[in-house]
Structures are given as C-alpha cells and as structure tokens.
Amino acid sequence: MTAKPSEKSEGVFEGEQMKVTNKLNLPSAFVRAVSRERHNKPNHFSATTLLKGVKEIVLTLRHFDELEIDASESLFAVFGTAVHAIMEANAGADDFVEESFETRIGAFTVTGKCDSYDMDAGVVWDWKTASTWKIIMKDFDDWKRQGLIYAYLMRANGLTVNECRFVALLKDYSRTKARTEKDYPPAPVYVYAFPVTESELEKIGAFISEKIGGIEKALKLPDEEIPPCTPSERWERGAGFAVKKKGNKRATRILSGRDEAENLAESLGKEFVAEERKGESVKCAGYCPCREFCDFYQRMNGN
To answer: CA-based, 20 to 30 A from 187: which of 68, 88, 181, 216?
Structure first.
C-alpha cells in the first residue's frame, strides 16, 4: 500500500504502518519512495530479518505502526532500490530474477528472494550498495549468512546452489584513496564470492532453527523480558584502544591493552596514535528502528 501524504507536506506521511516524517519538506515523491510497509507477512520471516537480533525482530513486529523515521534518513535505501530495479530490468533471459523461495520451520515460514540465480552454473547473485569501509574490514558475515539462507531455501525447493556472489557498488568510493591507501578497494565495484558446501548448509540450517526458536519464545514474553540482542547484532564496539592515523576517524586496529596499542602506533610511524575508546552499541544508537521501545537501549542511555 502506497503511503499517502498528510495535508501538510512538512507533517507526517501515514502509510498502513510506519510513520514517515518530512522535517526537511522534501518532495512527496521522495517520501513515498522511502515509506516502509511491513516487511513480513504474519508468521513469515525473511532471510534478512533472521540476520537481526530476536529482540529487534519481535519489538519491530509489535510496534511497527508506532515506529517513526524521517524521510531524510532513508537516502541510501533509495539507492539500493534503484540499483535492484536497474539490474532486474537488464537481467539475462535464462536467469531467475527476484524469485521467491520459502520453507516451513515449525509454525513459521522462512522466506527469501535472491536478486538473480544462474541455473546452469548454480550461482546466486545479489546486488548491494555498500561503503568502502565494509570491504576494507572484510565485514562479510551478514552477506554470507544471507547467501547461505538463500541456498538453504533453494535446496529445500529442489535447486542446487554451488556458489554465492555479492556484487557491491561502493557509494563512497574515492579514486584518490585507491591510489594512495594499501587496503583500499581497487575499483568502485567489489565482488564477494564463496562456495556453498554441505557443511555450511548444515550450519545455516541450525542457525535458522535456533533463530526461529528464539523468536517463538520471545513472542510469549513482555517486551522488557526479551533478552537483549547479542553484541554482534548490536554492532558493539568494545572498549579498548584504537590505533589510527592522525586526522582519520576510523581506526586501523582496536586493541584491548594500552601498551600494546601504543607499541603498534609507534611501530607504524609518527603519523599514528593510540586513543582510548569507550564501548558503544552502534546499531542501538543510530540504526535500530525500535530503540525507543527497547529497555536495553533505555538503560544504556540512563533512562
């Protein structure tokens, strides 16, 4: 259902569920483009949903019609949607494109929609818009799990997947940095690929069952009794000492001990320093849509 704008363009665009504010008075077309409908049907959970923490999943389900986001915060979602639309329009005639697969796990249904599937080669393709930092840090765990869930679902539907390939379009790419920084991606497009093995399929099957079981238990609990998301699901940056180049915001490495960090900074050269860093849950602070309903987030902020 397309979100309809309110009478005041600077007010709230109320769709069927999530409220989208328009504090910058952006055009109605942009607001409609970023308006979010409920992602999962009742008792259905997508591959990307299962990558989130159980508490986030359940709180989002319960409070979706109370959640609020400003249109200006959804710019990169528009980029991602545009990329997928372009690639779908230009896909090969023999490829499956945006094909949905599902399988039943207990009382729930797990779903997935891969961007493209090459049946002859048994390759799943997925398009991503990403930051260069994700590539530099080789932060691919979420992509690997997503691809393996697709492979698991396709296997359950009689299809073979030999490999998953994620094509990342780097939205903040700098040719200058590519020439001057050692670990910087050499091109604005990066392909992350991995083989799909029987062992990996068994592991992802266990992961899916465990996550569905956790959701089932959490659905029976009040909000405040649901255990918090894990540190990795919260994108937690642990307290420690960051070694970084002077002037850079991002650390080259984060170490637990002061002496170790200072020794590393000294070995890298005079332009590197070691700084103490307090722990923080990055997703909770700026990216979790249901943080206002989360007791863990409230406690973290002293409320």
So the answer is: 88
